[in-house]
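Chapter summary example: a protein plus 2,6-di-O-phosphono-beta-D-fructofuranose.
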Amino acid sequence: MTTLAQYLNKHSTSAAINDVITTLADVGVTISELLRKGALADIMGEAGNQNVQGEEQKKLDVIANDLLLDALAKNAHCAGVASEELDDATPANNDGSLLVLFDPLDGSSNIDINMAVGTIFSILPYLRQGHTSENSDFLQAGHQQLAAGYLLYGTSTMLALTIADNVIMFSLDPDTNDYVVIEDNVQIDADTSEYAINSSNYRYWHVPMQNYIDELIAGRTGVRGRDFNTRWVAAMVGDVHRILCRGGLFTYPFDTKDINKPGKLRLMYEANPMSLLIERAGGAATDATTRILDIEPNDIHQRVPVVLGSKNEVSYIKNLHMQHDQV
Ligand code: FDP
């Protein structure tokens, strides 16, 4: 049995990264305890306000955001924090060498129905040590991330982490509050027959995505010659976790439902950290044409279409888009 602390001591590249990951994991213990108590901890329902994205905040969105913000602000290595829930990044310790971004409670619509939710995080280098961090310091492409991961609050609480080119899965032992390694060097199969998409948006997708889903639904009677199966957790963290466990394809593609949201997911809080995990596990992640980790952000709250998972399926979708663009 190897705990998170033991694993980090042995494998991580810097004491600063170890310390920030430990802070995030500790807050994860508190959030998971609140979720276990559920309605008894008064965490259900709406908070009564909207976040920067114009979405109704749940009580637990606000609680998780505040817990993470407080803990990271006290961490000497953390120079600034950006949250999906807040308009601007919050400066922390000027001498810190790291910036931390997070989606405090991913899949918030699952909270009130007792389904899986999670916390997603991304750690970037701080390039202006000694100065007060600003939004612009966070605008780094995903391939600059030093570490990334998520906490999944499901039937058990799990931490998936990527550091030093490796993806590791930990399970939280509720008796000791230790995260214990359950799988090291997680790898995803290149092929899959399982896909996750919210099909109710079909009429808003680009034609190549509609064609792709038509092919999967046709299954063995169509050009793919085999059947496919759908799974949709409605929390990206749950869908990505399934993919790390047994492969698969997840997409929240470009859609025209809301002209201001050319993709639902956020580049910096969701797409980048998940893409790093998936690529390091041997999968791929694209916006349908460009590698997600190579997108240069121009806004900390930027949205992006996402296609990620088993490598061959991701490249199949990319080819459909490229062929369509050439016609
Ligand atoms: P949510 O809005 O509930 O936080 O982050 C956005 C996200 O959840 C993803 O976790 C999830 O995959 C997706 O949105 C669910 O979207 P739909 O409500 O359109 O199904």
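Key point: The pocket of 2,6-di-O-phosphono-beta-D-fructofuranose is lined by residues 106-109, 198, 234-236, 252, 264-265, 270 (CB under 6 Å).
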